[in-house]
Amino acid sequence: MQHIIVPDVHGRKFWEDIKRYENVPCVFLGDYIDPYYHEGITSLESINVFLQIVDYAKSHDNVKLLIGNHDLEYAISLGASRCRYDYENADNIKKIFNENADLFDVAYEFYVGEKRFFCTHAGIHPHWCLDNSDVFGERFADAFHADKLNKMFHDRDKRFVESLRCVGWGRGGRNSVGSLVWCDAREFLDGYMARPDDYTVQVVGHTQLKEPILEEDSRGIVFLDARRCFYVDDEGKISVLSP
Question: What is the predicted pLDDT for the residue at 84?
Fold first, then answer.
């Protein structure tokens, strides 16, 4: 087992499956709070789960936390969209993010052999890069540098932060496609290439699915927001993690 991947939590407890594999590197794809009302999880319960995840990451150097679209509104208050935004507890949630800002990135990459897995909350779309070429450059592949993206995020680079505001048609926005925290799966499945090169696979959550899409096609992307943890084996295959 090379890596464990945890998609959108939203107050759920399935993430605890990773505790059986403490020595395996793990990345969370973001969206820790703002639970779905129909799942019966209260706001305070989701905040408690979020605190547990933060504490776990603090005590495990091999755990990486990414920012999702729901997290972004509390972390840096973009105002792009506030779906299920917890106004009552917002100040408390913002405090958690602010006090632990160094824990949260926007991108994470790892290799299994020559295969690169590039993790973001919602995925990097070529049209988003094109629309923001002043940030990423003219080549799609130039955006796929996790260290660069994370530095721009932590530095609050004005152009990069503004680009994160992009919300596409799949989420009712006015942009051609969404940013790496907002891009809907339908915006990729509409025929657009998601692979910057022959060996990179994009790993994303964000768009909730009944069943994950685990096998990357020619577009080079997998969708994992299905209320389960996943792992990447020694051959680069993604499977459901056994609880």
Answer: 78
